[in-house]
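Collaboration report, partner site 2.

Our partner group contributed sequences for two proteins of shared interest, and the home lab folded both. The records are reproduced in the order in which they were received, starting with the first partner submission.
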Amino acid sequence: MRKTPGIRAVLQPVMRLAFSIEKIADRTLRAKIGLTFAMFRMLLVINKHPRANQRDIAAFWGVAEASVSRQIDSLRRKKLIAASPVPGNRRSHAFVLTPSGSRLIGRGVAAIDGELESAFRDFPPPARQRLAAELARLVASFDAASGCGGRKTKTQ
């Protein structure tokens, strides 16, 4: 009977995979659309949650507001997002994508998908289906344990 692998033996490859995917995405986005992966992640949240503010975006990704602030400033300079004041809070702004920002999301997703697809060439559809199902179970388990549960924003 085979010994059940320990938690580190299971999670170490998952963490390495996540790191590798992020590096591939960052390299691809820089080359194809001139954005870092961190900036692109901000666009994705604003696309999914129009009118999200800086605190909402930080909460969604589980990062510090200061980190989001730098990305937001860059995206505004590039005219990929627009800001409007939040009524009743002159220090807070709600963000929406500009038409340029909306177009860039499609190009960025396609570029990342193209790069990552090549990594899956040796995985036939049944293997992908099994992997997707197991990863979904793992994510659900960890979301429940961490309390993240999909990281909702106030705008949902």
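Second partner submission, folded after the first:
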Amino acid sequence: MALLALLALAPAARADDAGVFDAYVAGQPPVDKAGTAYRNAFRRYRRSESARDLRAIIRADRRLNRALAKIVPAVRGEEASSRAGERARNAALTEMRVWIAANRLQIGSLRAALAGRTGRSDRLFRRASRTFEGVIPAGKRAVRSFKAAGFTSPEGPVSDLRFNRS
């Protein structure tokens, strides 16, 4: 009888981790599209270095933040049922929060540059770069933890945008 109870709980536990995984993976396509918009804006800026293109980068950063901000409550709303699922959930949330923070700092840096405040722009950009260094490792931790829970993401971490894979 106890064995039947344990067997009945095992699929439910996996289902809870599946909910966390599905919430994490479901947000990848909008993030990839926003990342492509960011890449295109950045390429345009490198060619012309115009204020217009800096504003396009700011718009693309905001679009990325909106896409990421939709994933956070979806992942947070799911309860993991295993230790690996909980680690994956925490790493995924860290990945999103740190990325949003880095983008906000970058937006501040670009706005300072537009205002002619180069010292402030440089400081904020360095801080944004240091902050972003935590995004990729958190994404890789999330994918490793999901794999330990029995789920494999075909896309990899959310922070591993398509344009970074080629």
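Feedback sent to the partner group on the second submission included the following. DSSP finds seven helices and no strands in the chain. Residues 58 and 107 are 6 Å apart (CA to CA).
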